[in-house]
Design goal:
The chain has 227 residues and is α/β, with parallel strands linked by helices. The chain contains 6 helices and 16 strands. The radius of gyration is 16 Å and the shape is globular. Bound molecules: nickel (II) ion (NI) and manganese (II) ion (MN).
Length: 227
């Protein structure tokens, strides 16, 4: 069993009933999030890149709960320096945690943090998470890339979280192509509505995938999908 709860933007809380993880915990600054960071209790925090709308509240959650932040090496070094616990990884690498297996995928984007927003935090990533017998692919922020086809060929993806908001990431038409490459059983659109500049219509994404055989699950913040 795997239950994924969407907290708006790119934040997903995942549990198999025994273990709890959260991906890109942008909560207190997230106008869409129905929960605050101080209500989150997890074992691990996966962070795709250093931008504030992804690193979000990861450091305070780690400090308060003792949760380990799993991130690309340079970002892991950054959060360690800020007093959080970290497990350093990098693209192409996988590791078996007690909750399941995590593999880092490429993402075409930037990654920086700090007060200026310009402190370099390495390459951004996506996550393949195998947990509770299911595999979830959270792409992080990225443009479309052809290697998604390889990710789909080499992994049976049960659930994909994919940005559709355009401007900073792929938009709807590229996201439709990404779904065609990966062929997940279900896909949840993310990274839209948060601000005007990425306000787009997820129903258009769903319409364009009608007949594809892929379940397009449009989740409102706070809603969950159970596999
Ligand atoms: Ni970003
Ligand atoms: Mn973002």
């Amino acid at each position: 069993m795997l239950k994924a709860t969407f907290y708006g933007h790119s934040c997903v809380y995942v549990t198999d009933g025994r273990h709890r993880i959260i991906i890109d915990p942008f909560l207190d600054g997230n106008p869409l999030s129905p929960v605050k960071a101080d209500s989150i209790d997890v074992d691990y925090i996966l962070v795709t890149h250093g931008h504030g709308d992804h690193l979000g509240d990861a450091i305070p959650i780690s400090k308060r709960t003792g949760a380990t932040i799993v991130a690309p090496n340079e970002l892991a070094i950054y959060v360690s320096r800020e007093g959080a616990l970290a497990h350093n990884m990098h693209i192409g690498g996988a590791y078996n945690f007690e909750f399941g297996r995590v593999k880092l995928t490429i993402a075409h984007h930037g990654s920086s943090a700090g007060e200026s927003g310009l402190e370099y935090t390495g390459n951004p990533c996506g996550f393949l998470v195998t947990m509770g017998g299911k595999t979830l692919y959270h792409t992080g922020d990225t443009g479309l890339f052809y290697d998604m086809k390889l990710i789909g060929e080499m992994n049976k993806i049960d659930l994909m979280f994919l940005p559709i908001g355009d401007n900073f990431t792929m938009g709807i038409d590229d996201a439709v192509k990404a779904v065609e490459f990966v062929r997940p059983k279900a896909v949840v659109p993310m990274h839209y509505h948060t601000w005007d500049i990425i306000d787009t219509d997820p129903e258009e994404f769903k319409r364009k995938l009608a007949g594809s055989g892929v379940n397009v699950a449009i989740l409102k913040p706070g809603q969950a999908i159970e596999l």
